[in-house]
Amino acid sequence: MNSLVLIDSSQLTADGFEKLSDQIMYPYAVPYDLLKHGSDPRVATCRGKLQNKRSKLNQEINKELRLRAGAENLFKATTNRKLKETVALELSFVNSNLQLLKEQLAELNSSVELYQNDSTEPVMPMIPLGLKETKEIDFREPFKDFILEHYSEDGSQYEDPIAEFMDTRQAMRTPLRDSSGVGLLFQYYNQLYFVERRFFPPDRSLGIYFEWYDSLTGVPSCQRTVAFEKACVLFNMGAVYTQIGTKQDRLASKGLDSAVDSFLRASGTFRYILENFTNAPSMDLGPEMLDMLVQLMLAQARECLFEKLELQSRDRKQDVDVCLDLAQEAAQVSEVYGKVHTLISCQPVKDYVPYSWVCLAQVKREHYTALSHYHTALGVMGARMGDMSAQTRDTLQFLHAEDENKTRLEIRVPQDDDERKLLGRAHLRESLLLHEESQRLHRMCRELRGKAALSGVLKKCHTRALDAYTAAEEEDDFREVLDPPRILREWQHVPFITLESPTIFIASTKFQLSLTPPDFSQYRVEDLFRALGPVAIFSAKHHWTAPRSIQLQRLGGEGFGFSVRGDAPVIVAGVDQGSLADFGGMKEGDFIVAIGDKDVKWFPHEDVVKLIKLAGDSLSLKLVTPMDKNYLKQPKGGPKGSVSTSSSSSSGVSSGQPSPAGSMAAHSHKKLTWNPFRKTSAHGKDSVLDHNVILR
């Protein structure tokens, strides 16, 4: 049984709030009511401060862009030479300010350490994404005007649903970095499904513009389509997943599992955007950028898997098979970061992303190749030849690729303990060189030099490899002087080749990662504007006449003269010529939207028939006539509607045809059904008609 804990928010510090919010771990379910709130702007967490700085920089960049656009237009329009010189000087100042602001924003985007977990030991940093910022939009007047114009209803009756929708959008601008924040974004995205169909017709605009800032450059983009709004919400969803994964405690197995899950969900979300949205107005939603982000998140997920394997193997460091598994996984991580570096180094992504991202991908590529050589050396040097199984020998044979130039190691599988030690030392030496290369790349990047965690990890691994190499060198030093092996003579005369040569070590993995696309069904929402009717019928792209009221008054046993079919909404299936319904103005295909003062747009067929029956001799209806021809088309293979055998029949029973609302219906065998509104025939027997049973 779940219990609630009451917390005094006034006694909660900023750091305490940040830790408390991070304790709500994905994928535990979150109550629906909790999804309606974003983060508290009064709580000044480090992450919140960073996002606020990003928001202010976005506004400043937008201001400078407008100034530049105005100055450029003035420069083109004027013919005054002195004015042109003044405008040109002003343009140079604006461009300088704009470049400075973009550099400040790039520095903020490089502040990955604020998103990392506060662990006691240094941990390799991950790359999270900041959220796209957007402006507040007032939907009240456009929505109320459209409700009055298109749906012929009083827009003031829908002020509460409109306000709730606006509150949800306002809250999703600042989602929490946990499952409730993800749920809030899902809730808003699912609500957009209904809002788009209710209020955004394909043939005209309501004057509503969705403006979002680029997550990395701060350049604003403005679109009228809801598709742009959806893509930006999905991007923020993926960004929150990256922040959740980055914040996990990767020194524990549970934290690593959560990090892998979050990065795979982020990768799946970016893939979904890439496959379902085109012609992006901003660079962060472009296909090249999204493709790179998919691979980057996959690489970080695989990196977490390697860290988990290392964590589980701490007690079995001397096991040669475990070490070789670690070596293969490290080589696989290096390979995927090599792919990321290839994508991130191509135009236009290279000039768009922070330079620190490019450098970090390089550093990790070299670092994990060094780890693959280090773990291979530990495994080879820690096991004697007699203890190596056939499977271990096959693994070594697979790991070491043949060199066509014969300039590298010729020992692929050691034949004795001497070759085993020499092979191990060669791997240690290569590991040292690659660790030094990763540290050199780290020092060359100004943004990365200040990352203490990254410096600590690189230094720790280099020191560990150096200690192992020194110990191995001291142990075999006398033998090398007396009888230097051929392999060492070759390595002394051949320059070492860096990671770009894939023939040194073949990557492999036992883990197959699959992307996790967004699961929209996990957060179901109720249509806020449900009172307008079934969205399949009463939507912005469909048209119908204004509602008209019909009053039918019958005398004695006279019938109303119409039949109905379907449900939600119920449709007039037929009108008898010369009947009350015909004189009242009812038409075949009309939708019954109200009976008396009761709205029946969502009522099933049985309930509408019951209300008609209870009305007695006086029936008040409100009808609308669809203006789209396809509304009146009968489904293939179905009957044409219930038509009474008596010319004076009243409203008939359903023919079983579903209405265009798409309600669940199924046809069964025909049988005789009593019509509750039918007059008795002249022979005293009830007239009958064909009827298909509706299954609910």
UniProtKB/TrEMBL annotation:
PROSITE patterns: BRO1, PDZ, REM_1. GO terms for biological process: negative regulation of stress fiber assembly; signal transduction. Residues 549-627 form the PDZ domain. Residues 40-114 form the REM-1 domain. Residues 125-535 form the BRO1 domain. Gene3D superfamilies: 2.30.42.10, alix/aip1 like domains (1.25.40.280), HR1 repeat (1.10.287.160). Keywords: Coiled coil. Belongs to the RHPN family. This is Rhophilin-2. It comes from Timema shepardi (Walking stick).
